[in-house]
Amino acid sequence: MSEHVSSAEITFAHAPSEGTGRIWKIFWVLSFITVVELLLGFGLAKHWFGEPEKSHSLILAVKGVICILSLAKAFYIVSVFMHLGDEIRNMIMTIVVPLCLFIWFIGAFLWDGNSWKNLRNTNAGSRPAKTEQHQQPAVDKDAKK
Amino acid sequence: MSTTAIPTNTKWWNGGRSPFNASYGKVMMWYFLMSDAFTFGAFLISYGTIRFSVNSWADPNQVFNAFPGFGHQNLPLAFVSLMTFILIFSSVTMVLAVHEGHKMNRKGVEKYMILTILGGLAFLGCQAWEWTHLLTGEHIAMLSDGTLSVVPTTVKMNPWGTHVAPDAIAAALQNTSHDKLAEIAATLHNGGAAHNVSAMSSAELISAIQASPELHVNHTGPIAFGGYFFGITGFHGFHVFSGVIINVVMWAKNKTGPL
Q1: Can you give the pLDDT at residue A15?
Q2: Considering only alpha carbons, which residue of chain A is nearest residue B49?
Q3: DSSP state, B150?
Q4: For residue A13, with 0-12 CB atoms within 10 Å meaning exposed, 13-18 middle and 19 or more buried, which class applies?
Q5: CB-based contacts of A91, cutoff 8 Å, min separation 6
């Protein structure tokens, strides 16, 4: 056992994992979260949470829950299945901290997309915005692209 | 087995050892994974930006609601659920292969790597079916010139725009050429009317089309949809495909042992 962990660059070896119990436990956790996500997604498709035109905030909350559940899944997969949780703090931080840039990326770019839509709908502020455009045919816009 | 606790106040950065207590290969694998995360993150954020910038987008539950062997039943999310569970299953078998490796059990590694490879191939097979279904599945759409046509989902065009009201359909049918009307009538599965569509006159075709209970017309969808869908799922398919190839190499090297 010792021959494959001994290396000048590694000063201590991780304790060998005892059994596969933890792996299967995480498998069931991931499966359960996935089933909940699918139920919520199915509910959104079937308008369980109200019609999209009316219950904006409830639908947004359900989508938020799906995002949080996905982050929980990402945590379990990276921490347990990919063994990042078994590394020392230095190693974990060198991976996790750069990924925090995503918070800024997502916020900035989606904001930009939304601003782009508003500018186009109002001719850059020169006419009032139509508030909701769900039934607006997409034809003219597509013809221009 | 030199399992020792981490000495307190270890000076990790004094040199002579990895400050991450990990081998060069493992650290570089993590940096590769981080770059992979940024690549796919950039794709998805770009997709989100475009989606936020237009007034309507394709409804994924409408775009894909099929399942092999279930014909035209409306089953949104069913096939992607299957694909998700294939991915969860193959990630478990990969972890178990690593686990067997830690125990130096070559037979166990072999077994779980084969299961992982099969899971990867199953996912790729599902994706091939999904792409074929979208690229060949034609739906009636209203083009920007006000005529109707049968449109597949490609990077150039898709039939997933907003819903067209019945009176607008009636007006568009009048502008549509005989050939297109025959094509549209042929896609509607209303029994007898589907026979001999090319022999029917335009007026007959229009009344047959309007009588069909399956008549459902959308405007053509946002043009960026196809490029994003096939681009991002294509890169993901390539990511899975290269993983399968690398796993096959590792399986073979594990089977033959050090050469």
Answers
A1: 64
A2: A113
A3: E
A4: middle
A5: A84, B20, B21, B22, B27, B30
Considering only the beta carbons, identify the residue of A10, A27, A102 that sits closest to B41.
A102
Which of A75, A65, A92 has its CA nearest to residue A30? Answer: A75
Q: Using alpha carbons, select from B85, B104, B24, B182 the residue that is nearest to residue A17.
A: B104
- 3-state secondary structure string, chain A? CHHHCCECCECCCCCCCCCCHHHHHHHHHHHHHHHHHHHHHHHHHCCCCCCCCCCHHHHHHHHHHHHHHHHHHHHHHHHHHCCHHHCCHHHHHHHHHHHCHHHHHHHHHHHHHHHHHHHHHCCCCCCCCCCCCCCCCCHHHHHHC
Q: Report pLDDT digits (tens) over B126-159.
A: 999 999 999 998 899 999 898 999 999 999 999 9
Judged by CB atoms closer than 8 Å, whether chains meet at A113 and B19 is answered as no
Give the integer Cα–Cα distance in Å for B118 and B90. 8
Count how many Cα atoms sit within 13 Å of the Cα of residue B17 in the half-sphere of its side chain. Answer: 15
Token pair belonging to B75: 């089953």
How many other C-beta atoms are found inside a 10 Å radius of the C-beta of residue B225? 24
Task: Give the model's pLDDT for residue B213.
Answer: 81
Predicted complex: ipTM over 0.85: no
pLDDT for the residue B190: 56
* A31-80 residue pLDDT tens: 999 999 999 998 988 888 888 888 889 999 999 999 999 999 999 999 99
Q: Tell me the shortest Cα–Cα distance from B61 to chain A, in angstroms.
A: 6
Is residue B96 within 8 Å of A20, Cβ to Cβ? yes
Give the dihedral sign, CA A142/B45/B235/A68: negative
SS3 B218: strand
Can you read off the two tokens belonging to residue A42? 């199915």
Distance from CA of A54 to the nearest CA of B (A): 17
Chain A: residue nearest B50 by CA?
A: A113
- Among A6, A7, A17, the residue with its CB nearest the CB of B102 is A17
Domains defined for chain B, CATH in brackets: 59-137+225-256 (1.20.120.80), 139-219 (no CATH)
Which chain A residues are within 8 Å of B61, Cβ to Cβ? 45
Residue of B nearest to A96 (CA): B34
